C-alpha cells in the first residue's frame, strides 16, 4: 500500500467488476486518494469511485500526489464527508 493511490476494492465491489474496471487495479492502493478528497462517504456510486480512481491513474504525477496529500489534511481537519 502506498500513501496515495486508488481505493482498495471491497468484497462487494470486487463482485461487480467487469473487464473495464480492471484498470483500477493497475496501481497500488493508497491510504488516501481521489475518492477521499472528493467526497468520501458522500460518493456511494461504484462507477463514480472507479471513475475517480481511473482519473488518478491516467493523470498521475508527483505533483498530483502532493496535491491529494495536502487536500487530505484539509479534509481531515474539516471532517468533510465523514459519516
Give your account of this protein's structure.
The protein is mainly alpha-helical and 83 residues long. Helix content is 48%, strand content 7%. The chain has helices spanning 11-16, 34-37, 46-58, 62-78, and strands at 2-4, 30-32. Strands 1-2 form a two-stranded parallel sheet. The longest helix is centred in the last third of the chain and has 17 residues, at 62-78. It starts with a strand and ends in a 5-residue tail after the last helix. The model has no long low-confidence stretch (mean pLDDT 87).
Note the main sheet.
2 strands, parallel
Strand content: 5-15%
Assembly level: single chain
Written as H for each helix and E for each strand, in order along the chain, the element string is EHEHHH
Fraction of residues in helix? 40-55%
Judged by helices, strands and strand pairing, the structural class is mainly alpha
Number of strands: 2
Spatial shape: globular
Mean pLDDT: 87
